[in-house]
Amino acid sequence: MDKSPDAFRTISEVADDLDLPQHVLRFWETRFPQVKPLKRGGGRRYYRPDDIELLKGIRHLLYDQGYTIKGVQKLLKTNGNKFVMAVASGDVATMEALVAASSSKSEEPKVSLDDDQVLGRPKIKASGRFFGFGGGDDDAPEISVGKTSVGKEDRALLQEALFDLLECKRLLDQVR
Length: 176
Fold this sequence. Notes:
176 residues; 57% helix; DNA-binding transcription factor activity; MerR-type_HTH_dom; DNA binding; MerR family transcriptional regulator; DNA-binding
């Protein structure tokens, strides 16, 4: 028996629907405070329909459009949850209306889907900068190794590499 469209979903149902591992959904909860599933006894998560639509938008922006987590966070902060939900459904009219309505309320310019720099897309390929080959950028910051701390940019690059590896693992697991 299928659930009603308004019914709450478990993390396993949402993970299957979005074709993501459950740990990615849990991780996104730490990075996107807008994702707040209802938690019941024993820590079991129940996602509302709006939570699922927001997760679909986040997934589309991260995996299909190539945005970074920081870029999606900026989109959510400046344009709101409904904008990202509209991105997931491809509702261009709603996206434009939300941007127009929010830009008329404040003087701060809103983020658009065309604005590469504001969205947090990488300006250069991570491989050339992070691994030190290709591109030969001499003024790229060195990676801290040993007892010194890792810088913010290096940490972000490592995080992106980790996500890429996890996605590769997921794709390999599907093929097997």
